[in-house]
């Protein structure tokens, strides 16, 4: 038999003082780490102003990294789930109207969609021009970041069809598509792969009828791979850029990518 090591058990007092020492040490370490993290964050650079107004860049890192993961898994073959027409809401939910000023009447007949080409040339399309292209319909679950979702039915022209018809292939080499309301009060930036996704449409109909003003007449974006915030209503202009275009909700702290 090997003799037991002669280790004296700790007295109660010793146990207490040891625990106190450990927890005090842990508390000190935690406080120091909180302080230094705060200092690090405080001294860190500001996030790109157009993307997120005045936020320290590291606070956005998680979202930006999420974006990288989402984008690496993004494919035009991966389609958002669609539903039968019978499941589409008869009364479509209305959310907000930034950049639409619903109190003053909006003259749809005078409206033109302005497309700013890379060459500097500007296309001005009427609603009739847009309706002349093949119509695409989609019934999907529209999701708002505020926590509601609803199956709704939209009709319009696929953004990719508009690109092809108006020979905007050069423009799709830019990383982002920017869309703004005519008064520039609401604006979104969308990564080009999402904009040219086969389910992304410039919608002029809801439930088979012309869009009501509150839902974005005469033309709104329906982009099922994104949250509602990116589905800009009453589009006035479209441009293309390699830098992230300004984005209304990203400036207010929401995720720039806002992918689903
Ligand atoms: N011009 C404009 N487009 C907008 C908004 C807005 O306030 N103004 N709100 C967005 C948000 S947050 C959502 S959820 C959807 C809501 O669209 P709906 O009102 O047709 O349901 O529109 C998006 N597009
Ligand atoms: Mo929303």
UniProtKB/TrEMBL annotation:
Pfam families: Oxidored_molyb. InterPro entries: OxRdtase_Mopterin-bd_dom (IPR000572), OxRdtase_Mopterin-bd_sf (IPR036374). Gene3D superfamilies: Oxidoreductase, molybdopterin-binding domain. Residues 104-249 form the Oxidoreductase molybdopterin-binding domain. The chain crosses the membrane at residues 21-41. Keywords: Membrane, Transmembrane, Transmembrane helix. PANTHER family: PROTEIN-METHIONINE-SULFOXIDE REDUCTASE. This is Molybdopterin-dependent oxidoreductase-like protein. It comes from Mucilaginibacter auburnensis.
